[in-house]
């Protein structure tokens, strides 16, 4: 007779469910790395992650090699749909730099040290330790909780890093070279837009828990108070089956405008179902909230009628030189604003490397010093040059402009600019003395 | 009152999905004594298959083909990966199913890609009025489909030879073997049925907003459902699934009014709270078979 073990099985089921949630998987582990130290071009001082030998896949065989690391969410994490295009755009960006002759006698290699963090802080720290000795700087460290797990080491080891996240915390870190404004100020501008252009009297922030959603909601609250608008804060967890609380709150309180910081499927459920239940207010979502495929979903009509999208820079199809260069470099791909972001995030690191070469000091410390002296960065029109100010105090250096896009079926990523980069009155007067969450 | 009925209707719709998934877990458990953690991946695979077929053959045919596809996938997994483990401790097999789940999801994620995929269902977010209560059409469709599937399934177990063989094998494998029943066929069939049920569930989860790489997590809510209903009870899986759906919906609707001190989003953990309470009072679930242990 088969022994019945349902009690143990129940326990195993519970524990294994936890294990399953905690687990994740990936198969993209490109190993390899560069030589530590190295000669460089004689006059330029170097230490970690810069070598006199050519890169493994050098465009310019006579050049030395600068190794940059990438830690991204490449397979199983929630941001993989954005992270893969971000990483592809960065590969294309640095390839273009190499095609143009490299930087100061060096090619830049970002493909030898690409690691998958699966959006898990522990994994992030682990893979960072694996590549830390091979690279001068990080061309991408994706996510804020993940980057927070290594920030102490980044600081103590002088590893300059381009983040793939927009939280206000990065304004206060010298080694992090962020681009575009943060979620906090972006949401302040969205609330100002709601009050000035949409005539809103009440605002609700519907957001994920954690630094992405909380930073956005923090900014919305600050702006709502400054503009004397009614404000409600509704935290909602990830998962399209978990949105009934948020839907209930929106339909119940009927705010004029909802500031949305979630992911695309959650947005589809919230916007689609509230519209079906007669909600007539507007939604303004941050860029990770949007995905062009939402226009093929049953919520498409609701999005067209009610949705705006805020963003730190113009979407994929915009006509700046930077956008054009990005589209040419990534080639024939399904348009995705991950490409736009990966491209924009790369300009400050390029500027810092050029500055460090100019200073004759391509050591890690030399690169940090170069970053601290950057007052402008040439973003090829994607952002104004002053957006790349890393020299001043956070409150002086922070870039306070964002833009609003509207749903546009003909645009490559389903949105086109409604109101170009602007600085709302709340953001203008706001004293940024600490992060918003 | 309308709000209460609306909340319950939504909960029954969502609960039907949990019930379908829970049935898959229970059928495999009854046949093999293994809790298969491959259900989330099978659910995702079925829904993705539907999303690819819908353009060519239309929604209803795509669902049928998706169910067949996921059933064959379940069958294939059983024949290739699980079958060699017959006779090994069930705990080992359960861990293997965890591996299958992860591996399969990575493959399926490749087919999902960067964007949200649509299953092209005819309901969207449309609502109709039933006795003065606005109910989502897709919830009605889910509930009716689940009721139909369950009826067919119960009839199959009660009246068909193969169904009887499955019940017999679940009751006592050795005796069933001695009576000339193929326990191997029973194992394979249980995986196929679980795959098919998961595909139906996945399709209904994806109605409305569509499917992305994170959809699989929903399948784990079937675990509190099966523990509530009893791991080896088909009826229990249905009752458990519906209960979890309704509890979750009611908590989402009313918790902020009646128990704001629990914090926001208590609804998300409410299925697990119910599961804990049931485990405390009835460790074998509401309808599970009590374990007879000889010391």
Summarize the structure.
Chain A has 437 residues and is of the alpha/beta class. Helices cover 39% and strands 16% of the residues of chain A. Chain B starts with a helix and ends in a 14-residue tail after the last helix.
Return the structural class of chain B.
mainly alpha
Strand residues, percent of chain A: 15-25%
Across the major sheet of chain A, the strand order is 9-8-10-11-12-14-15
Using DSSP, what is the number of strands of chain A? 15
Class per helix and strand makeup of chain A: alpha/beta
CATH topology of the largest domain in chain A: Rossmann fold
- Name the pair of protein chains with the most residues at their interface, and give those residue counts: A-B, 66 and 75 residues
- The percent range for helix content of chain B is over 70%
Which labels suit this protein?
heterodimer, A: 437 residues, alpha/beta, Rossmann fold, 2 domains, 6-stranded mixed beta sheet, 15 helices, globular, B: 295 residues, mainly alpha, two-stranded antiparallel sheet, 11 helices, 2 strands, 71% helix
